[in-house]
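pasting input
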Amino acid sequence: MSMFEQLTNRDRVFDFLAPVASPVDVRHGPILYLEDVNVSFDGFKAINNLNLTIDDGELRCIIGPNGAGKTTMMDIITGKTRPDTGSVWFGSRHNLLTMNEPDIASLGIGRKFQKPTVFEALTVFENLELAMAADKRIWPTLTAIMKAEYRDRIDEVLEMIGLKQLRDKLAGILSHGQKQWLEIGMLLMQKPRLLLVDEPVAGMTEQEMERTAELLTSLAGKQSVVVVEHDMGFVRSIARQVTVLHQGSVLAEGTMDQVSNDPEVIKVYLGEEA
Amino acid sequence: MPTSQFWLLRPLQERSTQIFLGVLFAAVALVTLLHLIIPEGHALHVSAYTVTLLGKYLCYALLAVAVDLVWGYLGILSLGHGAFFALGGYAMGMYLMRQIGDRGTYGDPVLPDFMVFLNWDSLPWYWQGFDMAWFAFIMVLLAPGLLALVFGFLAFRSRVTGVYLSIITQALTFALMLAFFRNEMGFGGNNGLTDFRDILGLNLRTDATRLGLFIATGIALAIGYVICRGIVTSKLGRVSIACRDAEARTRFLGYRVERVQLFVFVVSAMLAGVAGALYVPQVGIINPSEFSPLFSIEIVVWVALGGRATLYGAVIGAILVNYAKTVFTGVMPDAWLFALGGLFVLVTVFLPKGIAGLLQKRKKQEEDTDTDAAQPKEATA
């Protein structure tokens, strides 16, 4: 297309202005590397020489006693906390330590908080609308219009998370479990490459837990999912790979059976429950 | 259901905005007709004094809408919006001062009276250009907008929110008040700017000009309301609500919360500036007392009374409270502050959603009874 044609064509962005997409490079396998990461808060070592690798499309569970550094690890990956030393890479192209929270989010890392946080004053549909991958600068947001394809995408996610009937209800009236699903749905709207899910089944009923397990396992493969969870029964029901954190570093890694037979793990974690 | 592609047209397709604009235009038209057609002395005649008083209420209403936009939808409780209102007012006041020309007490063709009185021999640089209406009108938007931009940029970037932000906004308006009280600032010190004569070549002291200003204020309120409503019904409005209720979540969704806050804050400051600019020619004076923290807090009381996050509630609140103020300060001047305080307490306790909440509740009840009535009919059909 000639330069002149480009300039007169009002329905598209000039080629030279279009943002250059920088896809996540996973040709070498892993989608997330953490290497020798250290964080201390006032002398307390929250993360101590942590090394962790997550493969593309993997569903990984991370367990560990309170204070093991699970949430701090999530904070580091999403850019909320900066490590003192170490490196964190998303694929083999993006150094997450040089990026801020919104940039990391738009790169394709979605995070679900421990406490469900949805926008209670907005409807379920609107919650998903805001989460949708789109140009999130001020003016495009102000002039945004609801296209049919967006609506379809939202309905698709509503179907996935099982909240189709509640589409136009305020998110504030949802039950605890429904809020958790809505929040997972909001992450899915961003078409993330990596989902970080913090204690998804805390406070859920048995049935809700089952549904959540189904939802999470159905997501793996399409995107990588990292679940931090306390509930061992739940972890057993979804996990293929389990990582045990203790005092800020990896204590053991393997399948649930391997891990739960590890004498070290039994000593520091499972032993407490028995 | 608003369906327009263009965000500013969307409010016009909305029932609540249509009703609001309808009532506003009807009221302005009625006052205009009663003033022009009914002869003086008749019981239904609306005097020029009343027209100006109503114009003043409409300015306050626009100011309240601006505050509701940031407080109701963005969760930023600004206790310093009076500063933006006053800055807009001063910009207009400077224009009106320059229009006096050599008709002032001292007869200086360029310098306003207070400068002659202070023995200044030339116009300070920041008074240049205010003899031109277009320049002054741009400054009405630009001065408050710029202050809000710089202030908001610093505050929101450092993620100052909640009570801390409220206190800083309060400090901002207080600091400006002290500054404007100083004669050296060149804004007339504690007397402010007054003794206005013309606006756009029209004599400010005639009834026709006063009526014109009243109508202009009505139009400004309508436009301001539609702009705010347009923002609120857009996706950006929903993002604002998201910032208000769960700031961290919004950030993780990829929105730049501080930019959303800055944008809405600047728009709100500009609207407040316009309100101030329309207020000054109708009241005939602008002085530093408009910067007083008390006034800014009073604005918040109007919005709380009317009902937060509805916009029309802010208009109702501003008009009702100021009407009550006019009546009270006439009958029992000493009782006004007690009445205002009492009103605020009563509304917070019994009507947490303000007067607008009361209206919504009634509407909802009607809808509920409507659907109840509709269902059996469908069943038999």
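fyi Residues 371-381 of chain B have pLDDT under 50 and may be disordered.
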